[in-house]
Each structure stands twice: as C-alpha cells, then as structure tokens.
Automatic annotation (TrEMBL):
Chain ranges of the Major facilitator superfamily (MFS) profile domain: 13-412
Originating organism: Levilactobacillus angrenensis
PROSITE patterns: MFS
Chief location category: membrane
Membrane topology: Multi-pass membrane protein
Keywords: Membrane, Transmembrane, Transmembrane helix, Transport
Transmembrane spans: 16-36, 56-77, 84-103, 109-130, 142-161, 173-192, 229-250, 262-284, 296-315, 321-340, 360-381, 387-407
UniProt cross-references to Gene3D superfamilies, sorted A to Z: MFS general substrate transporter like domains
Pfam families, sorted: MFS_1
Domain of life: Bacteria
Annotated protein name in UniProt: MFS transporter
SUPFAM superfamilies from the UniProt entry: MFS general substrate transporter
Amino acid sequence: MENSTATSSHWTFRQVMVIAGIWFAFLISFITRLSWSTIMPSAIDSLHFTVQQGNSYLTAFYIGYAITVLPGGMLADKFGYKKLLLAAVLGNLIVMGAMVFMQGYWDGLALRFILGLVSGPDLSACLGIITEWFDGKKRATATGIFNTCTSFGLTVINLYAPTVMVHYGWRAALGVTAVFPLAALIFAFFALRGNPPFPQQFGVKEADGEIETESSMSRLKKAINNRSVWMLAITGLFATGAKWGVTNWANLFIVKNLKFDVVTAGTAMSIFGITSVVSMVVAGWISDHSKWSRHVWAAIFMAIFTPTIIGFALTPQGSLGMLYFWTGAMGVGAFMFSTITNNLSVEVAPADQRGTVSGFINVFNQVGSFLAPVLLGQLLASTGSYVSSYLIISVFPIIAVVALLFVRESDADKNK
C-alpha cells in the first residue's frame, strides 16, 4: 500500500517531511560553508590577512570536502543514508561553534579543513534518501526542490551576516551561523523517521536467486566502469568549479572591484540566491514532464551560465541596476543545471551503488570547487584584474556542456 501511495501522482505527508528534513540539513551545510566568503571582506582586514590567505580558507574547506565525499558516499551505502546525514550535521555544529573563537590564521584554516571533512557525506546521503522515498516520475522535481536549499542558503546568509557583521563584528556573524546546525539536527532527526517505500539495497541478486552482499570496493569498481559516470564527473569538475569559483568570489568582486559596500553586496547575492531557487524548481518540473532526456536539458540549462558570468564581470562601476540584473541572471546560470546533474548522478547508478556513484562524481565537483578559487587567485595575482579572471573562468561551463552530450541515463530507472 505504501509503495502504491508513493508512486501516485500526489506527494504523501511523509514525502513532504522527508524533503523538508534533508532540505534543512543541507541548507545548514551551505550556510556554514559559505559563511567565510560572506564575512571575508571584513574578517581579512580585522585579522590582517592578505586576499590570498583569505582565499585559502575557501580552498581548505573544499580540499577537506573532496577527501571525504567518496568515502562518505561509500559509508552511506554501507550504514544508511540517514545516519551519515545526521553525522554530517552534528559535525557542522561542533566546528562552527569552534570557529567563533579562532585566534589566528592556522587554527582557522584547520577548522575550515575539518568543516570540509565532516561535510563530505552530506550530498550523497541526501540524494540517496530521495531515491528511497520518490519514484522516477517525481524524483527530478523532488531533487529540484531539495537543490533550492543551496542557493537559499546563500540568500539567508547574505540577509543576516553583513548586517550582524557591521553592527557586532564578524565573530558575531559566525556565532549566529553556529546556531543553525543545532536546529537542523533536531528537525531532521524527527522528519526522517519511518520506512521508505524504495529502501536502500545492500546486495545484488545472482542468477540462482541468491542475494549476495558486495563489498564497498567492489561497488566502487563497478560504479566507475561506466562512461556516463565519467562524463558527469568531468561535467562536475568544470561546471561546479565555475559555479563555486564565481559564487565564492562574488562578494569580494562587488566590494573590491565594483566599489559597493558589503550590505549592497549582500543584497545583490540575495537576489542571486532567489533567482537560483526559482530556476532549480523550474528545471526539475520541466525534466519530469518532458520527453527529452535529462542530460539534454542539463546541457541547455548549463549553456546559460557562460554569458551570465561575462555579463556580471563587465558590470559597470556604480551601476546598481546592472549589478542586480547580472547577479540575478548569474544565479540562474550557476544553479539551474544542478537539479538535473544531481538527479543524473543517482539515475546512472545501480540501486545498491547510488551513494558510491554520487560520492565519486562529487569528488570531481569538489576538486573543481577548490581549484577554481585557486585559479582565480592566481589569475588575479598575475593579471591584477578581477574581470580577466572571471572571463577566463567563463569558458569552463562550455567544456561541461560538451561532456553532458555523452551521458546516457538509465531509462529503466527513470521510468521505474
């Protein structure tokens, strides 16, 4: 009965609660990881850091995250998606509380690295939970709604952090941020209760009908022996790298290059977050209700990204209207495709390898995420131009579009 209800055209109350639980949990992950980029313009002045030192805090998170996304996905397949997600939120709570009391460059850098480590399993766990609760006809819409938490996190932190920072300092902004994981931990614990209609499979059925449990390494080998997995990995390397490169640098670019104040920068990035929220839900709905393949829609949405980066980079100084327009447009370009690419990362995987496959692909996402800010820093150091740095990064999504054209999702899984 629960299976037939779960596959009906309407969402059940339990499905709504599950999406709310993982949405809130992953929202917290994004608020904590983006906290440094939001307060960086003020914090680096207070701590007497160079721009490169401040940028290294962004890189430290992504290095830690990249190290644990694959093991985190494998552990999620082994121990369960809910357990790994709750562990990640608890880790965020502990580390963000500690960051309020950082005193110098090295202890803060170590905490940002640890924050990345404890956050590693979060995306694989959340995507795994979606596959347990939603069939293929509703999965992209569910993923699209879930994905809105990423850009909503950007909106939330830019709504409160600059104002708190101006009146009470950057440590107070981090302190407020540290409260969120506690609320998410409690809510997700209760929201994710119950037995899913499509439970995680821990074994594979042999020809004789026997169920054989595979080792984590065996699942990993099977997961990466797939062209679509590699194409999605390349897509993530370039597209996700560009997305978080430009996002993490946007506040700094607006303040240092366009000469706006931190509150105006926060408002612009809130618009960025709002447009990306809307675009991700729209992308999921289109994918679920279209006969076109998901990878085709992902390529179309990703092609929007490059011209929006260029437009943002060429925003005239002092033009508030153009700043808001291009920041909003870049929100669509940076996030609309991610609904479909995240959905593809579990749809190209067998049922017992979803955490492993999404973890493997997410390794490349995170490698791109920490290499892009490093590249931007090197380009800025060599050219002295924020604009040139952004224009070079704008080529990355084009490479990702080409890779997407070689992805073939599983029709059997999509029409499950």
